[in-house]
């Protein structure tokens, strides 16, 4: 996925991510929301309330600023707009946030197990996983606690709810979301086999790189 330079290009990338996320079973229907910061701006686009992620159209996006004001597009943003707004406010390096409800990541966390990173891709893209307890969707508590975790993690699990993945562009944010769920699936399978300790080799973290 190439770097987007215009609002229209960002929206098209988010539309593609929404369709792919549903196709891969990472989310059902409208169970998630997507956003991207506008190039060189203190504004971001976010999916509208109740929009199905595999049926997104350009008119389904709301444009907001970092003060939480609607400045264009769909007049009713996702109820989770604060999750995106607070994330951008604490991470100037982040230009996209992908919030989805992947079943294995949520399940493993709900069962009280940490999501383990097993592969080079898991380690390189996810690196570490933050988490919050359950808070009502759309609440200040959820947005603020997730933003606090996002200061030090690019992937954050929200207890009994979903996850957010942050990136310098839409492609990287979605890549992290996919690798987080793959790591969660691998963790679940390891637990089914009775393994509670295996993970990416500790000594390999020091020389971690990816082509």
Tell me what you see in this structure.
The chain has one domain (7-197): Class II aldolase/adducin N-terminal domain (L-fuculose-1-phosphate Aldolase, 3-Layer(aba) Sandwich). The mean pLDDT is 96. It is an alpha+beta fold and 211 residues long. It is built from six helices and eight strands; from the N terminus they run αββββαβααβαββα. It has an eight-stranded mixed beta sheet with strand order 4-3-2-1-5-8-7-6, with helices on both faces. It comes from Amycolatopsis taiwanensis. Keywords: Lyase, Metal-binding. Residues 12-188 form the Class II aldolase/adducin N-terminal domain.
Write the layout of secondary structure elements.
Blueprint: H1 7-23, E1 32-37, E2 43-47, E3 61-65, E4 70-73, H2 81-90, E5 96-100, H3 103-110, H4 120-126, E6 129-132, H5 140-150, E7 155-158, E8 162-167, H6 170-192
Parallel strand pairs: 6-7
Antiparallel strand pairs: 1-2, 1-5, 2-3, 3-4, 5-8, 7-8
Helix pairs in contact: 1-6, 2-5, 3-6, 4-6
């Amino acid at each position: 996925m190439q770097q987007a330079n215009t609002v229209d290009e960002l929206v098209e990338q988010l539309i593609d991510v929404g369709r792919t996320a549903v196709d891969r079973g990472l989310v059902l229907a409208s169970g998630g929301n997507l956003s991207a910061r506008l190039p060189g701006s203190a504004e971001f686009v976010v999916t509208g309330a109740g929009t199905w992620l595999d049926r997104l159209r350009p008119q389904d996006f709301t444009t907001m600023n970092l003060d939480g004001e609607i400045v264009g597009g769909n007049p009713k943003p996702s109820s989770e707009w604060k999750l995106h707004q607070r994330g951008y406010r604490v991470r100037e390096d982040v230009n996209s946030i992908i919030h989805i409800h992947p079943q294995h990541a949520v399940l493993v966390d709900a069962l009280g197990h940490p999501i383990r990173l097993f592969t080079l891709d898991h380690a390189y893209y996810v690196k570490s996983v933050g988490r919050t307890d359950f808070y009502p969707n759309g609440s200040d508590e959820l947005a603020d606690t997730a933003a606090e975790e996002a200061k030090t993690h690019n992937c954050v699990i929200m207890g009994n709810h979903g996850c957010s993945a942050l990136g310098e562009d839409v492609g990287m944010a979605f890549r992290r979301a996919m690798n987080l769920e793959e790591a969660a699936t691998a963790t679940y399978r390891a637990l089914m086999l009775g393994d509670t300790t295996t993970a990416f080799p500790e000594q390999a973290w020091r020389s971690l790189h990816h082509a």
